[in-house]
Amino acid sequence: MNPLLSALRAAVGAANVLTEGDLSAYELDWRRRSHGKALAVVRPGTTEEVAAVVRACAAAGTPIVPQGGNTGMVVGSTPDASGREVVLSLTRMNRIRSVDPDNLTLTVDAGCVLQNVQQAAEDAGLFFPLSLAAEGSCTIGGNLATNAGGTQVVRYGNARELCLGLEVVTAQGEVWQGLSGLRKDNTGYDLRDLFIGSEGTLGVITGATLKLHPQPAATLTAWAAVPSMDAALTLLGLAHRHLGAGLTGFEVMGRFALSLVPRHFPQQRVPFLQESAYGVLLENSDQESEPHARALFEKLLEAAMEDGCVTDAVVAENISQARALWHIRESIPLAQAQEGLNIKHDISIPVSRIPAFCAETDALLQREIAGVRLVNFGHLGDGNLHYNVQAPEGGDMQAFLRDQEERVNALVFEQVRRFDGSISAEHGIGTLKAAKLPHHKSPVALGMMRALKKALDPQGILNPGRVLPLAD
Amino acid sequence: MNPLLSALRAAVGAANVLTEGDLSAYELDWRRRSHGKALAVVRPGTTEEVAAVVRACAAAGTPIVPQGGNTGMVVGSTPDASGREVVLSLTRMNRIRSVDPDNLTLTVDAGCVLQNVQQAAEDAGLFFPLSLAAEGSCTIGGNLATNAGGTQVVRYGNARELCLGLEVVTAQGEVWQGLSGLRKDNTGYDLRDLFIGSEGTLGVITGATLKLHPQPAATLTAWAAVPSMDAALTLLGLAHRHLGAGLTGFEVMGRFALSLVPRHFPQQRVPFLQESAYGVLLENSDQESEPHARALFEKLLEAAMEDGCVTDAVVAENISQARALWHIRESIPLAQAQEGLNIKHDISIPVSRIPAFCAETDALLQREIAGVRLVNFGHLGDGNLHYNVQAPEGGDMQAFLRDQEERVNALVFEQVRRFDGSISAEHGIGTLKAAKLPHHKSPVALGMMRALKKALDPQGILNPGRVLPLAD
């Protein structure tokens, strides 16, 4: 009998230490790129139990892989194949702890599903803006550990900007009680932001105090046809000036990306598909009223058409039209999957440099790989592009992926570097990109990261090899 | 000849190493609480020179005190009395490096005066929201090193939320080039936020990329008479709902604090002074137009008067009226100084708990110290109170300060702790509050802070004893 397993059973109860049967829900990553093998999956129900699990693992020198909804994109929360790592699943910790409407805050367990967090805010007459495709199954702890982005960043910021305080179990199994509801607190180093985005490598987030916003009185959606990426940038500037903080969404989509949607989902109609090189989805959240929102939107689109950066536009008349427009945007990844295998990138570039980046990188790839097709879409307001590369029409897709993935990645990432961009805008590093990190961070930055890791987790038991590659 | 001085002269030129004459501009802190003695004041002109200075000091084991405009409130950027510390003044590094309007960013040297940063944004047709009393002489590097707050936090956040990237010289004299203009970048630990607010104890900020916003089309100011702190809180909730992101200022001021203004500056008239327990200054920044801003303000104030949380209100008709209202708010600290010595606190409390905090703490102090007078004002929207305690009318103020300061601090800080607040909302810790920190942070938090300090500055040469008290 493994003494660590006994200690874990003592900490959380035997029923919450899983070692047998099909554990693929915990061992297989979301994109099905890696199927690991856990020593055990441990499911604590309280912060104290999490601390006890960490202490037991620390005593045994056993690595811990914290896991939320297991919806990550970069293999950051599933075990490796060694059978030596313990998966620490937070999903049993799913309580809404408290709501404080006058303070505009909500305090929750880390294992709360994002949709339930959004709902708790709504039940209090308020709004929690974090929104992303996996919201029905991802957890807020995972969102914070990876500093999730999503569609509302242009107005409300990333997960980092939506969090006021954390509760964290340290690598030593102590509890840091940092659940502050304060908007101003300058008493020492910013521990909160160090844990946010550290992907479970510095501590285990067990609870969070989140920042809420007033619910908008009306949210309207528009679709604009724009002739070029330059024009999309001009439209973005006009939207900032006309809508200010009302601009809560700005998604740009290239024509080829859009053309895949009706090709694979014929019931969907994409506005202005033939006439324009790009479509832009705009969202305007208004504090006042729907007529006011509509008047502002019309004024903006008139100015844009006068400028020439928009050639045609439509404002959704009702919620179902708005949903249909968003549905086009959300269908692109699915349509792309139907079209076949492809190489995905989640990059960011300073907003002002995106037109030049796209023009150069598109041309470069088309020159290097004949017939390659570019599925380009993203959150232009944040400089975040999902710059995906699809095999040539009718080609052998498996062969394309096998032969070209490394080369395409190298070409794209080198372009990203030239344009002062990031190779991971919102998905993180995990295992998938850890080996690439040293090529994209300066030795000074990497040295500081290693020093911080060593300072907080000297034993190296928290999610080892994720984010920072293991030393040789 | 001191070999360190030779090395410093070689690094920055002899003219920029000051050792003689009146150095009180660098050695005396802003509130004139501490007059230290520097080994030398060194004034590098470039990032490379800063790095050379740090390397020279590191080689000699000599402590460095980074300094910007020397306007800090907590004795964090002046030398101690030992004559052993080198003051590293950043004020010669005052270039606006670049503006990128399409990316809504501005990149500057750390030594730029805040007002010049604001002006550079305005010159580009944009807006940098950080605003505070010392803006004519404080530097952006100091603002970031102390995570400055100010009057616009309710809408735009603290300095932390206004910064996208940093350039930092490490304790080893290396340059971390982290001047990112990216809004999304999840490639590793959040080094930026670790340096922001660390008060020069982890690295020396030499440059920053700042986040700009569109200029509002109109900014209106109103003054409301409110009968109680509870009513002020209700008004804040209504303002959030009616104005959304338009609410850019919400300052509450108690009647006694307000009464000091006409007492010492008779030309100033405070609206509704006799009729109401509190005055609230509201600012509404509108993306659309002045008539629209006015209509929204009137609707809000009507709703508030109907509710009863406001008994009377006035909206400034023009800019000079708006300035006069802000001038009252800004005159409170000066009027308070005219009234005599007092004990200042810069605290924050969760917004929802402020009415109970004030009621309890006011009563406690009045019970403990007969005749004590409370000068209470602050940024209610952020939960930040300047909760100041004035000697009884006509009493011996020197004696009051001498006999009561420690006791008053202890009483107020204990209340802050009971209400889950912070003993330093926006001013930082510096030397002044370093000894108090261990009583207000958990051992786990302090342990992590010490580990981080040791990881990044193992020699302990950067601003030693500030923020973290020196170990015994």
TrEMBL record, chains A, B:
| Record's keyword annotation contains Cytoplasm | no
Q: Mark the transmembrane ranges.
A: none
Q: Mind listing the UniProt keywords for this protein, alphabetically?
A: FAD, Flavoprotein
Q: Which InterPro entries match?
A: FAD-bd_oxidored_4_C (IPR004113), FAD-bd_PCMH (IPR016166), FAD-bd_PCMH-like_sf (IPR036318), FAD-bd_PCMH_sub1 (IPR016167), FAD-bd_PCMH_sub2 (IPR016169), FAD-linked_Oxase-like_C (IPR016164), FAD-oxidored/transferase_4 (IPR051264), Oxid_FAD_bind_N (IPR006094)
Q: Which domain of life is it from?
A: Bacteria
Q: Name one Pfam family in it.
A: FAD_binding_4
Gene3D superfamilies, A to Z: 3.30.465.10, 3.30.70.2190, 3.30.70.2740, Uridine Diphospho-n-acetylenolpyruvylglucosamine Reductase, domain 2, Vanillyl-alcohol Oxidase, Chain A, domain 4
Tell whether Flavoprotein is among the UniProt keywords. yes
Coiled coil segments of this chain? none
The identity of this protein, by name, is: FAD-binding oxidoreductase
Q: Which organism is it from?
A: Ramlibacter pallidus
